[in-house]
Design goal:
By secondary structure, the chain is mainly alpha-helical. 77% of the residues lie in helices and 0% in strands. It has 6 helices and no strands.
Length: 158
């Protein structure tokens, strides 16, 4: 009986040790998972902040002297973040950076035309050409009366 009792006690001890190891492993795994989740949340917050910062710095309101810098910033962003996306998705993203007044109306018109299939662009540069044509300076290097009027309207509205 003593031998059987000894074997039983040894088996119980093995089970207890195994359970302790599993519990410790589970705790360690839970800790690793929490740390990983925390890092993911931090990264998501950073990405969100960066996107908001980029988006804010790239808002376009229709001022003629800002057209080229807006186009260049959008081009850089698309090349880095949206290279693999379809041209239509890239254009729709650019349109989200356009806000207020005449730009808002033009943006809505473009969105409608794109949805209806009335406008198609093979490359993003074609769309940037439309932006330049619509909002860029009309004169070569000089501001025209139309530029001054539009830019003055913007300054009154901002």
């Amino acid at each position: 009986m003593k031998e059987e009792e000894k074997i039983r006690l040894e088996e119980e001890e093995k089970k207890r040790l195994e359970k302790t190891r599993k519990d410790e492993g589970k705790k360690k795994l839970d800790e690793i998972m929490r740390e990983g989740q925390k890092k993911v949340e931090e990264m998501m917050a950073q990405i969100k902040a960066m996107t908001k910062e980029v988006k804010t710095s790239m808002m376009f309101f229709g001022v003629s002297w800002k057209v080229e810098s807006f186009v260049n910033e959008c081009r850089k962003y698309v090349e880095i973040k949206m290279k693999e996306k379809m041209v239509e998705d890239q254009i729709l993203w650019v349109l989200t950076c356009m806000d207020r007044g005449i730009v808002e109306k033009w943006k809505e018109m473009m969105e409608d035309d794109l949805k209806k299939g009335l406008r198609e662009y093979v490359i993003l540069e074609e769309f940037f050409g439309e932006i330049r044509k619509e909002f860029g300076r009309k004169g070569k290097g000089k501001k025209t009366e139309e530029d001054i009027e539009r830019d003055g309207w913007f300054l009154k509205c901002s």
